[in-house]
Amino acid sequence: MKANPKGDWVIRDVETLCKQVGLICTPPSSGSHYRVYSDCLQGTLTIPAKRPIKPFYIRNLTSYAEAHQKMVEKRGNEK
Q1: What's the confidence (pLDDT) of residue 60?
Q2: Cα end-to-end span (Å), the chain
Q3: What span, in angstroms and rounded, lies between the C-alpha atoms of 14 and 36?
Q4: Considering Cα of 43, then 49, then 50, then 54, what sign does the dihedral take?
Q5: With a threshold of 0.85, does the pTM exceed it?
Q6: Contact of 43 with 67, CB cutoff 8 Å
Q7: Is the confidence at residue 78, as pLDDT, over 90?
Q8: Is the CB of residue 17 less than 8 Å from the CB of residue 1?
Q9: DSSP labels for the chain?
């Protein structure tokens, strides 16, 4: 995703990435945007479920996922 943010990404790809790195991805209760958040980071990303997902959202998601992974590693090293 990071190498090709302009790809034909769909919400299932977003859910897969979130699951792999440990982010929480919740479907919309109303509306059309999924929420992605971390128990290690502040803030929440909103990602539209319509296809294809714009590169802006993919870039934000990959940056957020990297920050999450770094924080998880940092917490693991502190224990």
Answers
A1: 96
A2: 31
A3: 9
A4: positive
A5: yes
A6: no
A7: no
A8: yes
A9: --S-TTS---HHHHHHHHHHHT-EEE--SSSSEEEEE-SSSS-EEEEE-SSSPPHHHHHHHHHHHHHHHHHHHHHHHH-
Q: Which domains does the chain have, with CATH numbers?
A: 11-69 (3.30.920)
Q: Which of 19, 53, 50 is nearest to 36 (CA)?
A: 19
Output the pLDDT for position 29: 87
Query: Which residues, in sequence order, are bridge partners of residue 25?
Result: 36
Residue 38's identity, in one-letter code, is: S
Token pair, residue 59, equals: 């870039």
How much is the pLDDT for 30?
85
